[in-house]
Design brief:
single chain; alpha/beta; 7-stranded mixed β-sheet; about 10% strand; elongated
Length: about 525
């Protein structure tokens, strides 16, 4: 077995594992298994065809490994070299285009195929060499994955809020709580100044319904996976930094911190029924530890599979443009609408309910026009910022954002009226942006060319049944939202933390810079 052609296995696994190793902080392992299986099955099929031609397993494996390597190299070649030229001093030179890749690949296949046919002796040493080289490639990526997982959540950073013992009234009728996170929803004054948009009809609607709207609210952090866990755990992420260090890059501990958050555990201990949705799209932000986690049927947006396919030669059959394996726009729309629809339906349940309504809107991608109709994109489907990755300019971003914001407003107003009308228990409603929009977020890996005021200023509105908002201030931040709720409705005695805003770049999410004074 030493000289068995294992290299065909390693070369099939390598592209999948390499891509996962580069994205462990934003991709869950469950999204990787299927691509791994497909890659192994595809390589096995190619090996079988090659064996029919060569009638020798080792020679067939060499050809199969070459074909698999070329198949998975096309996307990287296209991104790195197209349409560069070399030897331009000789006429037009050589252009690294689709034809160059096609004819070079064909030449390699014919040359190596011819050499394998001409070779009469066995190739055990060459097979061993290929085994070592390909295993080293696979092993390096696998090691990076293992290292990332080994440095994952230890649980040490998940108990940073001291639980305060309170006397709870067993006969009390606790309110149903709706925590509706409107991803990237900006503050009214910022929308007026930077987007030339008057959002006061929406905030006036909320005030007319009895909401308190914090006119100077900011988020505590500029990224979803930082902001939401800190809000639900009612504390800053200092304990994360103490455990993992500022230079730690993985986001899995934050996912653990979110899914095992203190607010959820506390409410469930009182008999609350918890509900969450897949409308946050971003898998690491899913609160799938809720009693009921609703996944919209037929809308599995596997961004990892999509990205992997775009590294392969399949892309060549799409005019070299990125491939969309699914109608991601329609699936995205369905997830958002399904979450709003379900939140309206459950308002009449007796409860008590904790509804975690995190929806990825008005955050990009912009898939809704103001009237809710489909908005098709001239750019690749992506949930990421900054502007450069969205392939749009600032004006296009603002137009898409405002259209989507207006549709979100319509859905939220409808939802609020439905909850207030149909809720069996008096509801508590929190409408909150996890961070602001990103028209001026040009550099997620640094600090230059970014507008922190835009990114960190948020909608932050509260509905309490008794209309008593003395515990809230105009600058209240999400870190204090559930401290107020615990104190007001559950007899807690939590102190309010200072309302601060921190920015960290994408590569080093735990390296926090206090930007509070610069954005107020």
């Amino acid at each position: 077995m030493k000289r068995f052609p294992w290299h065909i296995l390693w070369i099939a696994l390598f592209p999948v594992v390499f891509l996962y190793a580069e994205n462990t902080s934003v991709v869950e392992m469950k999204d990787v298994w299927l691509p791994l299986i497909y890659s192994i099955l595809g390589a096995s099929f190619v090996l079988g065809i090659s064996y029919v031609v060569f009638r020798d397993l080792r020679k067939a494996a060499v050809m199969a490994s070459l074909l698999v390597l070329l198949f998975f190299s096309y996307g990287a070649y296209h991104e790195a070299l197209f349409p560069k030229r070399i030897l331009t001093f000789i006429g037009k030179g050589i252009r690294f285009d689709h034809n160059f890749y096609k004819w070079t690949s064909l030449f390699l296949i014919l040359l190596i195929g011819w050499r394998l046919f001409k070779l009469k002796k066995d190739i055990p040493k060459f097979t061993s060499l290929l085994n070592m080289i390909t295993f080293a490639l696979f092993g390096f990526s696998a090691f990076n994955v293992i290292q990332a997982k080994a440095n994952g959540p230890s649980g040490e950073a998940t108990h940073s809020v001291e639980e305060i013992s309170v006397e709870l009234d067993s006969n009390a009728e606790y309110p149903s709580i709706y925590y509706i996170i409107l991803d990237a929803y900006g503050r009214e004054d910022v929308l007026r100044e930077m987007y030339d948009f008057d959002n006061s009809p929406f905030t006036d609607f909320l005030k007319d319904r009895g909401f308190f709207v914090a006119d100077g609210a900011t988020s505590n952090y500029g990224q979803t996976i930082l902001s939401v866990p800190s809000a639900l755990n009612m504390n800053y992420l200092d304990s994360m930094v103490e455990v993992y260090g500022e230079d730690y890059t993985e986001r899995e501990p934050l996912m653990h911190y979110l899914r095992e958050n203190k607010t959820l555990h506390f409410l469930e201990s009182l008999g609350y029924e918890s509900v969450a949705y897949d409308a946050s799209i971003f898998g690491l932000a899913h609160l799938n530890t809720a009693d009921h986690f609703f996944e919209t049927p037929g809308t599995d947006i596997n961004l990892f599979m999509n990205e992997l396919i775009n590294t392969t030669a399949i892309r060549a059959f799409n005019g070299r443009k990125p491939i969309k394996t699914l109608d991601n726009v329609e699936h995205h729309r369905k997830k958002i609408n399904a979450a709003f629809d379900h939140m309206e339906r459950i308002a009449s349940k007796p409860g008590p309910l904790y509804v975690h309504g995190h929806v990825l809107t008005p955050h990009q991608p912009f898939v809704f026009n103001a009237d809710g109709s489909r908005r098709d994109m001239d750019y690749e489907y992506t949930i990421w910022a900054p502007m450069e990755s969205l392939k749009m300019n600032e004006e296009e971003y603002k137009d898409g954002y405002l259209n989507q914001l207006q549709y979100v407003n319509t859905r939220v107003m409808q939802l609020v009226d439905t909850i207030l009308k149909n809720s069996v228990r008096k509801p508590v409603i929190i409408l909150q942006g996890d961070h602001g929009p990103a028209s001026e977020l040009h550099n997620i890996n640094g600090f230059e060319n970014n507008d922190f005021r835009e990114r960190l200023s948020i909608l932050n509105a509260y509905y309490f049944p008794d209309g008593g908002y003395s515990m809230l201030s105009d600058t209240v931040t999400p870190i204090n939202s559930f401290r107020v709720v615990r104190n007001k409705f559950f007899g807690g005695n939590y102190e309010m933390l200072p309302d601060r805003a921190y920015y960290s770049n994408w590569n080093y999410p735990y390296h926090f810079y206090d930007v509070t004074d610069s954005i107020r």
